[in-house]
Write a structure and sequence with these properties.
Distance between the termini: 11 Å
CATH architecture of the largest domain: 4-Layer Sandwich
Shape: globular
Number of helices: 18
Bound molecules: 5-amino-5-deoxy-1-O-phosphono-D-mannitol
CATH superfamily of the largest domain: Aminohydrolase, N-terminal nucleophile (Ntn) domain
Strand content: 15-25%
Length: 599
């Protein structure tokens, strides 16, 4: 959601900013803009729509060695050219891009800016106007600091001052921002991915810090103006990880990467003797908890539901799963010794982060399971487990989901083993079987394309049903289908249908049923019969050993606790092909952002 780039060096900034913004497209946006600063002043180009639309309006004759850019995902004001960033102060002296939300915008306007005419509907404009106001009586750096001290909310900011050439003023609070360090340049970026082609050396910024960035130095201060010394770290990003290669879409590439991700996870969590291992501190936090609260959003919360089963069955600890956006405002009565597990691919989701902040205020311990080392949720929790899935670019999460389930399985298993429970499970072997089964499924794409063609060409809705763990996978299948194909899709517990939902079934309604659990195999099949009797177009995806003649697809047999790792793949692929056939923008579905950094 929103992305910032900045460059200061010796090359033409425009192309570097635009390329960087293209790398941030995956975060979701609806307008974009850049500001290029040269001897003639600050030149602004912005446009509603895609980076390609912005490129079309950028004047190639403007050569500038300093610049800032932003992709905007509308929060305050519609997606439009006027609301697109960068925004300028009334005199045009200051130019600024901003990610995040300023919560006290109205108060600040009323108190300090009554005489200023605002051009856009954004909350951002208040920041740049405040800097201009204060700069009349102080140096820019002081005015910037004074402004930041007044802001409530989240921000990542890059700002140019027409009277201070050769400088980018940057700041961060709750929204990510990094400074990239090069030989004779510095870059500013929301994500290392945007600038990894330029440098792999990045300086992390903490909340409420500012940086005065020049071509050859970057000076960090806190909001009291005290100097902060921080060395750059090496971003371990492989440039090829963020390219599509020969794939038409990132989503397809990421679906295909799942077997490799599972193998990487096994390796990452094995010790020298091949036994699965997790930091002792994390395992003692697990063992010390009388209840675990999993907090997450979207796909990550669906992985959490599977995680609950795994932890309860393998580690014998009760688990509750909560949506972050609900938990924060309606906290349940907590047990005496809770442990919180935050699951987040990006590690930046604002809803989850706001719960983490509350949990820390209450003095409880938290573990983050994330794909992004150094992300906000990782830094702010007591412990982190990494997913090792490589960058996930498509908005629709696929490999992060399976990685989350696999890491939760390892966490549950190692905890159960440490507790002395006798576990009849060789998890390394079973995850190896899973990786092979995933490969088989990824090799059967035509089958899933055929299912999408047969069941969903003109569908206005689609239901996913399952019982037990299959129900949770059905929720994820429905989310995948709705978010990228815009078909209204819902996941239901098979047994609940007759308590209301079955009223929606009519002739031709697609119902995709999962049947991978022996204990409910009979009952889910009975549910399929109930909907078929009312005209539903049913598609059963079962597992070898539990299959029946009427099944549409039979998954390779895997351990019954780990079936989500394979049963989700057909659902990901069916969603992919349904979206493709409808001409939808698979990787960048409408209205969605990859990293949801506002609550
Ligand atoms: O980065 P997170 O895992 O915290 O993101 C949570 C959700 O926004 C995310 O899983 C979303 O539901 C997916 N894009 C769905 O595919």
């Amino acid at each position: 959601m929103c992305g910032i780039t900045g460059y200061i060096g010796t090359n033409d900034a425009k192309e570097i900013l635009l390329k960087g913004l293209e790398k941030l497209e995956y975060r979701g946006y609806d307008s974009a803009g850049i500001a290029a600063f040269n001897q003639d002043g600050i030149h602004i180009f912005k446009e509603k729509g895609r980076i390609a639309d912005l490129r079309a309006v950028v004047d190639g004759n403007v050569n500038a060695q300093t610049g800032i850019g932003q992709t905007r995902w509308a929060t305050h004001g519609a997606p439009s050219k006027i609301n697109a960033h960068p925004h300028q102060s009334a005199s045009g002296r200051f130019t600024l891009v901003h990610n995040g939300v300023i919560e006290n915008e109205s108060e600040l306007k009323a108190k300090y800016l009554q005489d200023v005419t605002f051009i856009s509907e954004t909350d951002t404009e208040v920041i740049v106007q405040l800097v201009e106001k204060f700069s009349k009586k102080m140096e820019t750096e002081e005015a910037f600091l004074k402004t930041l001290r007044l802001l409530n909310g989240s921000y990542a900011i890059a700002m140019l001052d027409a009277e201070t050439p050769g400088t980018i003023f940057a700041a961060k609070n709750k929204s990510p921002l990094l400074i990239g360090v090069g030989e004779d340049f510095h870059v500013v970026a929301s994500d290392a991915m945007a600038m990894i082609q330029m440098t792999d050396q990045f300086i992390e910024l903490m909340d409420k810090e500012i940086v005065i960035v020049k071509k050859d130095r970057a000076d960090i201060y806190n909001l009291n103006g005290e100097v902060i010394i921080r060395e750059p770290y090496r971003a371990e990003l492989d440039v090829t990880d963020i390219e599509k290669g020969t794939y038409p879409h990132y989503m397809l590439k990421e679906i295909d990467e799942q077997p490799l991700v599972i193998r990487k996870i096994i390796q990452a969590y094995q010790d020298g003797s091949g036994s699965l291992r997790i930091d002792d501190e994390i395992i003692s936090a697990m063992l010390g908890a009388d209840r675990i609260y999993i907090v997450a959003c979207g796909t990550s919360s669906h992985a959490g539901l599977v995680g609950k089963q795994l932890i309860e069955k393998l580690a014998d600890i009760p688990v509750e799963v909560h949506l972050a956006s609900e938990f924060g405002y309606n906290m349940p009565l907590l047990c005496e010794k809770p442990l919180f597990i935050f699951i987040s691919q990006s590690g930046e989701t604002a809803d989850s982060r706001s719960v983490l902040v509350k949990v820390k205020e209450l003095g409880y311990r938290a573990l983050t399971i994330t794909n992004v080392p150094g992300s906000t949720l990782s830094r702010e929790a007591d412990y982190t487990l990494l997913l090792h899935a490589g960058p996930e670019i498509a908005v629709a999460s696929t490999k992060a989901y399976t990685a989350q389930v696999a890491v939760l399985a390892i966490l549950a298993f190692v905890t159960g083993r440490a507790k002395g429970l006798s576990l009849d499970l060789d998890l390394v072997k079973e995850l190896g079987i899973i990786a092979n089964a995933m490969e088989t499924l990824c090799g059967a794409k035509e089958e899933f394309e055929q299912i999408a063609t047969e069941y969903l060409p003109a569908a206005i809705n689609c239901f996913f049903i399952g019982r037990s763990i299959d129900y949770f996978v059905g929720l994820e299948g429905a989310l995948k289908l709705k978010e990228i194909s815009y078909i209204q899709a819902e996941g239901f517990a098979g047994g609940e249908l007759k308590h209301g939902t079955i009223a929606l079934i009519e002739k031709g309604t697609p119902v995709i049923a999962l049947a991978t659990q022996a204990v409910v195999n009979g009952s889910i099949r009975a549910n399929v019969k109930e909907v078929a009797a009312r005209g539903a177009h049913t598609c059963i995806i079962s597992m070898k050993g539990l299959d029946a003649e009427e099944d549409r697809f039979i998954l390779p047999a895997v351990h019954e606790l780990l079936t989500p790792l394979v049963s989700v793949i057909p659902l990901q692929l069916i969603a992919y092909y349904a979206a493709l056939h409808r001409g939808c923008d698979v990787d960048k579905p409408r209205n969605l952002a990859k990293s949801v950094t506002v609550e």
